[in-house]
Specification:
Helices cover about 80% and strands about 0% of the residues. The chain is mainly α. The protein folds into two domains: about 1-145, no CATH class; about 155-325, no CATH class. Helix 8 crosses helix 9 (about 190-195) and helix 8 crosses helix 10.
Length: about 350
């Protein structure tokens, strides 16, 4: 009876304790918070350093300083927090980011938002209780959990980066394929790369995989979706195809096989690098290529690498694999159709 009452109370408070809520919705929203702060700040910083316009550098500094608050608010928004909880999440995000990095923001914002939702409008002094509970719980979580999870994620990320430096061919294949798959799944490849600080060669491999999925699906589905689908997937997200993948998982093979090829080309041939804020974005808004430019600073090899790894090879390889699978009947007309 008590269990039923608690369940009903949590439902009334819109507290949904599920994997989807925390690892898909919250993580995906976290990527938007990242884009609206640190990532766009990185782009402005690059513009400032290349154009010598100080305003861009000033904007970049403000964007960077707002990262924790943006992460906290975006996560609370994804969890459908009421206003007082939503606004309090800015403080929680700042504390989480300062004490535990991006994972600290994620964990502290999730816990404090849910606790804030539970006490919201339950007392006569809601204006004090709700932000108080949200901020206190968030800061405590950031203090006790943040440093540990941040250390683990940083260590794991460093291990991946070191392994990529030592074995650029095989790790290039692995990182490219896995991060590319994460980009198309309803989780955030950008948030994953951000939390792992996946930069350098590993960041370049991640970029290759993300571009292979986005450009690959854009080209593969062009007969069904035309220019609209090309732009939506090539500059937006290949996640649009997830419904079609559930119906026919074989449509995922062409871009994934392309990513397995372009990954080691990026790491071994072009020594492509990226910054961790951009490595999981692919061609979405051209953020991935811009990040490569930020990391490498120019040069003929870099531009050729961007041109081939981010655009030409994903398109050509996915189209070739797609033609093969269409001929053997694994991909049929309409399998990649989007409702645009």
């Amino acid at each position: 009876m008590a269990h039923t009452s608690i369940k009903q109370f949590l439902q009334k408070k819109n507290v949904n304790i599920t994997v989807k809520t925390y690892l898909i919705d919250a993580l995906g929203a976290m990527a938007y918070g990242l884009f609206a702060s640190l990532l766009i700040g990185t782009i402005f910083n690059t513009l400032g350093s290349k154009t010598q316009i100080s305003l861009f550098n000033t904007i970049a500094e403000y964007c960077t300083n707002a990262t924790g608050a943006a992460l906290g608010i975006s996560i609370a928004y994804a969890l459908k927090a009421p206003q007082l909880v939503l606004f309090s999440a800015a403080t929680v995000g700042i504390a989480g980011y300062a004490l535990g990095g991006p994972v600290g923001s994620l964990v502290s914002a999730i816990v404090s938002t849910e606790l804030g939702k539970i006490v919201s409008k339950e007392t006569q002094v809601d204006i004090l209780v709700t932000p108080g509970v949200t901020i206190i719980s968030g800061v405590l979580i950031a203090q006790f959990v943040g440093p540990g999870v941040s250390l683990f994620m940083t260590g794991f990320g460093n291990m991946v980066k070191t392994a990529t430096e030592m074995q650029p061919f095989f790790m290039g294949m692995l990182v490219s394929a896995l991060i590319g798959i994460a980009l198309t799944l309803p989780i955030s490849s950008a948030a994953i790369c951000f939390m792992l600080t996946l930069d350098g060669l590993a960041g370049g491999a991640a970029t290759a995989g993300c571009c292979a999925q986005m450009i690959g699906f854009a080209i593969l589905s062009f007969p069904e979706n035309g220019i609209g689908g090309l732009m939506a997937q090539g500059l937006g997200t290949s996640m649009l195809q997830i419904g079609n993948i559930v119906k026919n998982p074989r449509i995922w093979l062409p871009p994934t096989l392309a990513s397995i090829i372009t990954g080691p080309i990026a790491t071994c041939l072009f020594r492509m690098e990226n910054v961790h804020t951009s490595s999981g974005m692919g061609t979405c808004g051209m953020v991935g290529p811009i990040g490569v430019y930020t990391a490498m600073g120019g040069g003929a090899q870099m531009w050729l690498g961007i041109f081939l790894v981010c655009f030409i090879l994903p398109a050509v390889l996915t189209w070739i694999f797609g033609q093969i699978f269409r001929k053997i009947g694994w991909i049929k007309p309409g399998d990649l159709k989007l409702n645009l």
